[in-house]
Each structure stands twice: as C-alpha cells, then as structure tokens.
Here is the input.
Amino acid sequence: MLSALPGVLFDGVAYGSLLFLISIGLSVTLGLMNFINLAHGAFAMVGGYACVVATLRYGLPFGVALVVAFAVAAIAGGVLERVLYRRLYGRSPLDQVLFTIGLTFMSIAAATWVFGSGQQPVRLPDTLLGQTRILGVDVGIYRLFLIAIVFALASGLALLVTRTRFGARIRASVDDARTAAGLGIDVERVFSVTFTLGSGLAGLGGALGIDVLGLDPTFPLKYMVYFLLVVVVGGAGTIVGTLCAAMVLGIFDVAGKYYVPWAGAFVIYALMVALLLLFPRGLLRRIR
Amino acid sequence: MTAALRTQGLSRSFGALKAVREVSFTLEPGARHALIGPNGAGKTTFVNLLTGALPPSSGAVYLGADEITGLAQHERVKRGMTRTFQITTLFPGLTVLESVVLAIFERKGIAASLQTRVANRTAEIHEAIHIIRELRLERDAGSVTRSLPYGKQRLVEIAVALATRPRILLLDEPAAGIPAAESGEVFGVIAALPREVSVLFIEHDMDLVFRFAERITVLAQGSILAEGTPQEIGADPRVREVYLGDEAARG
Amino acid sequence: MSVAFSLPDARWRAAEIAFWIATGLVFFVFPSHLVLASQVLITGLFAVSLDLVLGYAGIVSLGHAAMFGTGAYVAGILARNGWGEPLSGLFAAGLAAAAVAFVTSFLALRGEDLTRLMVTLGISLLLYEAANQAGVWTGGVDGLSDMQVRDLFGVFPFDIRGRTAYLYTLAVVFLVFCAARRVVHSPFGLSLRGIRESPRRMAAIGSPVQRRLVVVYTLAGAMAGIAGALLAQTTQFVGLEVLGFSRSADLLIMLVLGGAGWLYGGLVGAALFLVAQSLLSRLNPVYWEFWLGLLIVLVVLLARGGINGALTRVSARLGLARRQA
Amino acid sequence: MKLAPAIASLAVLFAAPAAFPADPIKIGLIAEFSGPFAAYGRQIGTGMKAWLKEHGDTVAGRKIEIIERDTTGPSPEVAKRLAQDLITTDKVDFLAGFGLSPNALAVAAVATQGKTPMVIMNAATSIITTKSPYIVRLSMTLPQVTEPMALWAAKNKIKKVYSIVSDFAPGIDAESAFQKAFTAHGGEIVGSVRVPLKNPDFAPYVQRAKDAKPEAVFIFIPAGEQSVGFVKAFAERGLRQAGIQVIGPGDVTDDDVLEAMGEPTLGMITTHHYSFAHDSPQNEAFRKAYASVSGAKQRPNFMAVGGYDGMAAIAAVVTKLGGKMDAEKAMEIFKTYKTESPRGPIEIDPQTRDIVQSVYVRKVEKKGGQYLNVEFDRFPHVKDPVKEATKEAAK
Here is the structure.
C-alpha cells in the first residue's frame, strides 16, 4: 500500500490543481473585490463551451482553444460587469447572492437551449493523453500539464497582485474605495478589469476542467460547493491560500479515496469543517 | 476603603510588541479619573484588558476585593463594569429606546426571557425613558440609531452604558468626533452622574480633561508615566515633555 | 406616552389577520391547488425558522436542511415502523431536530460569515452522506416509502386532494408561527436583534452572546424539524433531497426574496418562489429556470434593497409589520 | 396570478364527469425536464412523441394528449404533487414517465388512491411495481440487465473481477446482483469499491482497481458526467493496455453520452436491453421517427425506447378498451401485453406487472464514424431476478 504513496500524492496534487483552476476566478472576485459571485460557475461553463466549440466546430488546436475560452469568458464578464454587476457593488452580500444565483439559473437554461442538456465531448490533443513514467511513478500527462499550468498561473497572479502597480491599485481600491479615488485611482476601471480577469480565469478553469469534470448545462450548480469550499478554506483573496487549500483538499481527498474508500464521500466535507474550525479566517489570511 | 477597580502588574503583548507593561493602577470609588497619553500609548488596550475583551499576558484585575482576571466580559458587566467604545459601537438598526431597554433587560437578567413581551415591560421602559430624558434624547427615542447625527450617537452610547447601571464606567473617548461646542455637553452629563458611579475616561482634549477629571493617569509606551491631580500633572515636567509638549507643538 | 416612546408591540395588526384569513380562504378558493399550497406553507415555515437565525440573529447558514431533513426522517422512520400518529410524530421530529441543531451549533456558530456558511453547508452534506449510507433506515437514494401515517385524530384520512393535509399543515404552521412571533416580540427576540446589529456591543452590555445564539439556533432547528416532518407526513415519502444542498440554497433564496428579519418574509418568499416555479414549469417544463432566474434578477435590480425593500414599503403602508434592514 | 388556474378548475368542476368519445385521452407525463437529470425527461418525452409521430395521435377515435410536468430533478414531493394535480385537476387517464426511482416511489400511493394506471418508462429499482397494483413497467430493472453480465463473464472465462459501483441504492443493487450471480458461477471478486455519488475524480478508484490486477472491472455508475469521468480515468490509467476488460450494465456506455466519451470506450462490454444500433425494422422506424421529432442529432437511448414502448402499450390498451377508459380493465390488458419493440421482443409478466425482455451483450465499436454498442449475444426472456427470487422464497 505504501508503495502507492508517490502515485497517490501525485494524483492528489493533480486533483488539487484542478480544484485550484476551477476556483481561482472566484477567489479573485470574492477576495479582491469583496463581491460574492455565485455565478462564477456560469463563467467557467462559458469557457468550457467556448473550448468545445473552438476545438470541435472550428478545429482549433487545444492551446488556442484555451485562449479562446479565457477571452470569451472575460468578455462576457466584462460586459456583464458594465451592464449589471456594477450596480450591486454597494449592496448587501445577500442581495449579491440572490442576484448571482438568478444569473446562474438563467445561464443553465440558456446553455440547455443552445447546446442541449447532454454531455459535451472533449478532445484533448494526443500529446496530452496517456501516462508517462517519472522517477518510477506512472503519471498522467494531462495531470502533469494541469500542475504546470497551475504553478505558472499561481505565481503569475501572486506577482500581479503583490508586485505590480495594478496589484497595488486593486488592493488600495478594495481597502478603501474613497481614499483610492482621492489618490487618483480610477476605482471603477480597476474593478472592471479585476472582474474581467476573474471571469477569464473562470473560463480558463472551466475549459481545463471539463476533461475530468464533464460539461453539461448544470455545471455551474453542480460544482458550486467545490468552488466555495476551496476559496473559503483558503481564505478569500489570497492566491497562495487558495493554492494551499486546493492542494490540501486534493491530496487528502485522493488519499482518502485510495486508502479508506468506504469513507470516500465524507473525507472532503469533514476536512473542510475541520479546517474551517481550526483556521476560521482561511489557511492564509488576506495578503496585505 | 477598597478601590473600585485595581490592577496588579497588568501586561499584554502582541507578538514582540509590549502594548501594556506592568501597569498597577487604582480607581477610587466615585472617581472622575482620566487616562491620557500620546497615540499608541496603550490606552485602549488597557481598557480592553479591564473589560475582559482581551486576556492579559500577565498580571491581575480586581473589582473591589474580588479578582476578576479570568472572568468573561459579560460576567464583568453583571458585576457592574461597563464600557463605551472609541469608535461608536451601537445597534445601528435599533431605535434609541430599544437600545436602552435592551441594556436594561440584560442588567436585570430577563433578556433571555421568552415569557413576556417587550412592549409589556412597562417598568423597564419607564426606566429607559428616564435615562433618555437625562441625556436629553427624548425627541429621538423612536428614531433608528443609524439615522442620528454623530453627536447624538455618542450620547446614545452613554445612555446604553448607563442602562447597565454600572458602578464603574469606562469611557473610551466619549466626545471623539463631536464638535467642540457639543463635547462639553457630553462631559456635563458625565460629571452630573451620581457619585456611586466611578468613572474612568480616555480623552485627548486637554481642556476637557482638566475641566472634568479629578485625577489623571498618564500612560506612555504601555506603562504609567505619572499619576496625580490635574494640578500635579499639569506641573509635571516629564508629562509636559512626552505629552503636553507634543500637544503644544501640534496646537 | 408620546409617539416617540412607542415600541413595536405584539398586537396582531389588521393586515396580519387578513393574511392568515387569506391562507384559510385558499382552502375554498383554490380547492385544486391545495397540495401546492401545503408545500408553500411548509417551505414557508422552514424559511421562518431560517429567518430567526439569519434575519434576527444575523447568522448566515447554508445548511439549514440538516434540521429539516432530520425532522423528515424521524417522522418518516417512526411512521414506517408503526408509529403513524401524526402529532406525536411532529413532536418527536421537532425534538430530534433541536438536538441536532444544539449539538452542531457549537461548530456552526464559530467564525465569520463565510466560515459559518461553509461549516453549516459541510454539516448538512455530511448528514446527507450519512443518510445515503444508512440505507436500511432511510432507503438511501430510493427514498423512504411505506410510511403508514394514521388518520389525523383517528378521524380524518389524508386524501388525494390534500384537503386534510392542507388544514393540518395550516394549523401546525400557524401555531409554530405564533411561537416564532412570540420569540421575536420577547426580550429574547430584542436581544437577538441586538446581536445581529453588534455582537461586540452586546458583550459590552453584559450579554452572553454565544449562549443566546445556541438557544435560537436550537429553537429554529426544532421549527425546521417540524417543517420537515410535515412534509414527510403529507407526502408520505422522504427522499434524500430533504438534506440536499439545493434545499438549503433555495431556502436562502426564498427568504432573501421575501425579506429577512420580518417573519412574514419567509412565507411570502416561499409563496412567490414556489408559485412562480410551478406556473413557469407548467408553461415551459424545460426552460422555466431562465424565467425564474430573470424574475430573481429583476427583483434585486428594480426593487431597491431587493423585494425586501418593496415589501417594507408596502407593508409599512399596510401597517403589517415593521422591519429594519 | 392564481386566478387563471382557479377559473380552469371551476370549469372542470362544472364539466361533465364522464368522457365523451371525442374527448382526448390524457396522459400526465411526470419526468425530469430540468436540472442535472434533464436528459431523462427529454429522452422519455421525445420517445413518446416518436411513437405518436409514427402511428398518428388518434387511438380508438380519441386523440392522445400528453401533459408534460417537470419534477425539477430528484424531488419526490414535487413528483407527488404533480401526480395529485394531474389526477384531481387535469383528470388524466394515465400517469407516465418517471426517470428516477424516488419520484416513482413517491407517486405509487397516489396511483392507488386515484385508481390511475401508472406507466414506468425508466425508473429501474426492482421494488417499484410492488408499491401499487396500478403500476406497470415498460423499461427494465437494474438486476435484470446486470445478472446476464455476470453469467456472460463467467461463461467467457473471466475469473477475477474488481467491482466499482456508485455508492447509492441502485449501485448497491447492481453490485449485489452481479456478485451473487458471478460467484455462483465460479467467478471471484478480487475487490470492490463504492464511489461517492458526487465525485469529480475517479483516478484513485481506478488506480486501486488496477493495483488489484483483475481480468475485468465491473462498473455501474449513472450515465452523465460520472461515466465521462470514469472513462477518462480508465483511459489515462492504461487499464486497456494492461489487458483489463470493462464490463457492466449498459449505463456506462449509454448511447446518449457515448459520442461525448469517444475513443476510450472502444471494446467495453456491457449488457443492456436496448442499443441504438439494434438491427431490426422496428428500430429503424423508431430511429427515424425520433430524429424527425427531436430535430437534433441527439440519439435515442434506452429511456427513449422506454417512452416509446410505454406509449405503445398505452395505445394498445386504449384500443382494446375501445376508447372507453376503465382503470381496472386497463390494468388487466397491460398484464397480457406483448409486442415486438425496437429493442426486440417484450412482454409484461402478469404476476408482477414488470417487463420481460431480451438482454443483449454488446461491445463498443466504431462504425461509419460513430461509436456504437454492437450487440453480439443475447439472453432471451429475462425476468427481474429479484422478484423471481422472492417468488422462489415464497414457494
């Protein structure tokens, strides 16, 4: 059993990467903008469908399709932010929840109308299929690919938020919009850009995730619990925290399923409750 | 006569920062005692240690003859120690009358009651109206606290504190943010409180401190720098140096 | 006493009385929609119980189904194993749900809003899985059938048109609502609103905040359990979904839609949501979710402060009740 | 908002209670049209309409009217409410549909109370037909299509099997049906695992199965994203390369999802009562009618054929009754129902009101650019083994 440990750990990290990818967009909008966007899954779904259409209908390569997925979801997010979301920034969290749930319902019905209620096929390029052997462990190539993307994405985002002027503007705008505006920061634009970025990331996560998660119109509701779980356990708004949470949950979930399969369903929820009680403000508190 | 409130070597650290160090302090019964000190001297932390909002790193707190160091905040309130906050901390969505009645219920231990209805508790309502009148808030009794001007809110703060019928009242900058003209009014109300109530207040405005305090403790860098009557403090060169000098420079 | 000194008194207002008379009239005016009407009342009661926790005490929960489901299963299991008397079944269900609420309150009440949201959700999902595993008792995913609910008072059978079920539901919901109303108007209710407004200040005036929250969470749990038991008894079936995520999530939607912190918000929200759902899904069984979503979005956008705001304005005019945001 | 239905219901109250011959035969279709199981309702509803398209919508001089109602997913209380409304308000002559077992089970009592025949078009839990004398099933039971898998595997020299099922009642039914029959015929279960219902990652379970080195993996999971996830993990872990065969009831290679899963499904062997690729004139006609109704390129699957056959059975009953509805007589006719369906020969067991049918062994192959479940062996006249066992025990 122990000989399987390296493989289990690798799978755990890979699953954690998947959790990170589908949650990071929400972490950005919730953590950086204090906006509870339960329609996050809808943007992920948009990215997923964009990827499917790009690869199957237009025969684009997978890599290009990922860019398309990011772009389409980002544009959708940007437009909706302009037209709708902006009106809700000052409102109570419950209003935001209600509003975004309403949007989620609409997105599910709309996706059913356009694409039908069935599962969508996903075709990965052959180079990403199958397994390879690294240090004596059989590892899935696509999983390896996901892990690589996650670490690139996480470090890129962390740098963006902590090291760049744009990051400083985001943080200033969130902490105190009025002061930030007084300092000459165009808060409205900062929020627009951040929301667009968050939506784009959701779309990218959706596109990368559908190979494992499947894609049908109920995607936004079906995985809502998972998005929230990762983001809240990690502590909203910390890229590193979200990454840690995704990894911890991923590794424990996979290990639990492998070693104690009878408890499979309980592991992730019990772990979530335990982690939240131990770290009520998230694994890492918000980066300042 | 035992002190109303006393601390013994009270300390509190936040990581490497020693916010309050080895403070031994006494509040006499019926006192009008001011706690002053420059920004970051540890005044608010000290009050939080007194009320139990923060546990001390070391040292002890005595209420009368009893040690209360380990007591929960609400237990201390039951024993007659109440505070107000530097930043207005009220019930924004309740009316003034509701806020005061609520505090009276808590004092009388009937706030957990399901037996009666709020509207039928005439005794408590009358007492609340009495307190509200004392603070000249009667015209605003039915208003939601959130809608009141800031100065009025500070008075509501005190009204709620008084409703717990404290023997010891800890006021953290009761006049903060109020126009100078009205702040005198707030302190007038405090000064007029019955002598059974011992009052400790933190205040920045030296005029007010010297007008209303009968005793002053100066806190600097977490420990007591000086203590005495206003005259003694006013004459103390060390105080002038760290505090009044600072004030003078600012003024 | 002058007007300025008035407190929200507990007298029944005309609009409230009219509301309850209207629910009674439903029996005569909509005889063919009594099953829907019963389910609206049951869900409404469930929402009222969440209102005590969320609207009054300010505790967000995404796991209220834990207590609802417990009540449903207790009533269901009793009725399947020969204890089919409905009223005692309700009582037992309420007790069991209160016990679950009491025990879990020590986990659920810690931390901040988002933490509470996820901890309560986690608890209900764990219970869901437990019920799925305990197939011998609960029937698992296939549900618990074969409930033998006896005739009410040994006289009135539960008929196919749902007449008995409606009157039974209405009576129970009304009585439990009165209890909730009493809680809200009591000093305890005032202290809950104090906690919602500022837990810090409550502690400063000597209130044991945590203990109060445990009490209200337990009380609300009992109410949710009774609602769950009502659903089980009137449906004579318990599905695993009584503990599901969407049960809690829809409930939150209904309460916010109807307005939190106002008791009637739960009933109004449940009625709006379920009637809209029923009508829309009749018109369009496949795409109705779009229109329901649109309705929700419009309510949030157009009625400032959600429909809560609109209702407050209307209700203020009607004098139905007062509500603070 | 409630005025219109109120007026409608008043109108119903004043309408003549008995049906004129010109009145339509009303079928209340209760199924999952939205939510995660929306495909169920769509398949069943389109299957029914395909029959009407093919045979015309008038039977014994009476028009067939289908009233669609959405259960919104697995939601027993909604299903039951819809059934009550359909019987008391719409005065339907038949209840039909039911993709999910809990929805069917919750409605059973209503069918009895309202004396309305209830035609199950998918829900596969064995006990359903025992819950009301008014229930007849035109779909299948899970043990019915699972047991032949075990017999086939044992016969074809598969000795060691690892079992993976979803952790819920149908999964456990499938697991026990397979294990019982397989071990009785000399097979060995080298390991088994139950997978949580909401489970985005199958890799750990598939890895476990691979580590146990079986000859075949028996799998039952609900069709949809679960089977997509399983198939992906199966391909990635290289089980096929390791020579491990996938066997199981046909849900994992459901025709509706097969194209979406694609290449990795090649070679999987399943037992089921219907394949889109079934070669018969009846199926040819059904596929054509289905395509013309749905318009989309979506394939009919076993639920669609359940809807189609259910509709056919209802029509046959109405014809025999000469258009005069009578629930008791209708049930008697259902019990002797026998026909050649697009899936092959089917009949109703008069004792259990459950379906008796051929179960086919199929293998996924790629033909003409399509992934298909190609039938290559069959078990004729299979009854629900659970009820057969109960009958045996009673003797």
